[in-house]
C-alpha cells in the first residue's frame, strides 16, 4: 500500500510500504476512506515530538471501512463503517476505567501516528478496535465524521470543559485555526456572554466570526484592551490557548481576570515562561491536557441532530494520493486560507 511516511524533521513522502496486518486479537484493519491533517502533524514535522521516529506512518484522524478483525474483537464486523479515534484505549487499566483514555497504561493513549503507524495511508491497523472506533450512522458523511476523530473532542474537552466555560462568561480563544474554531463552536453550547478570537491572520478571524465569535482582534493589535472593554476592565473568565507557542500561552495568562482559567490546548515544542510572580496573587488556574475522547459519542449525537456545524470547517479537498500537496497547503494557512483539508480515496 501507499502511506505518508515521516523521514525525520521536515521530511515526509508518499511511499509504498507493507500492508498492515492483525498483530493482536483486539486489532482491526480498516480501508481508509477519509483522512485529515492535524496541526500536531506539523509539530511532528517541525521536530517538536521527538518520540516519533523516522519511518512512522503519520496521521490519527480517519473514517474507514473494516476489512479484517482479530479474534478478540466483539463489536465490529467486516464492512462496518467506522470513525477511528485519535485515542486508543485498552479499557482495563486504571486510567481507562476512569474514562481518562488519553493516559492509558495498557498500550493505548495517543499512539496512532505517534508510537505506532497511523492512518494517513490506504489501510491502517487500529489497536483496541472495540473501544477505539465508533460505528457511524449512514446519514453522517465521511467529511463531517472525520472531524470527530480529534479536533472537536479535543477542543471541547481540553478547552471548554477544562476551562469550565459557564453561561455569561467572557471567553477568549487565542488561535483561530481548526482547534480554535472548534473551541469557539463548542463554547457556544454554554451561552457565554462574549467570545473573543485572537489570531494573526484576518482570514481566520473572519472564519471565527462564522463559527460564533462576536469579537475578533489581530494579535498585533491590542487584545487585552478589547477583552477589558467588554469585562469592565477585569479580563476574560476563560482564555483558551489553541496555538502551542510560548508567546500565545503567555498572552493567555495576561488576558484572564483574577480567578480566571487558562485552558491550554496547543502542542508545545518549546518551554514557555510561567510568570508565577504575577499569577499566584491573581488566583489563576492553568489546565493542560491530552484529549481522552470520552465525549465523542455525545458529539456524534449532536452532529446527527444538527447541533454542530462542521460544513464550513473543511476548506480544501484532495485525493489521498495528493497528500504531499495537501500538507503544503495546510502548512501555509495565511496564504492559502486553509482550515481543515480532507483527503478521500475517491
UniProtKB/TrEMBL annotation:
The keyword Transmembrane helix does not apply. Its cofactor is Zn(2+). SMART domains: PKS_ER. It comes from the Bacteria. Keywords: Metal-binding, Oxidoreductase, Zinc. Residues 7-343 form the Enoyl reductase (ER) domain. The keyword Oxidoreductase applies. One of its GO terms (molecular function) is zinc ion binding. Belongs to the zinc-containing alcohol dehydrogenase family. This is Alcohol dehydrogenase. It comes from Micromonospora chersina.
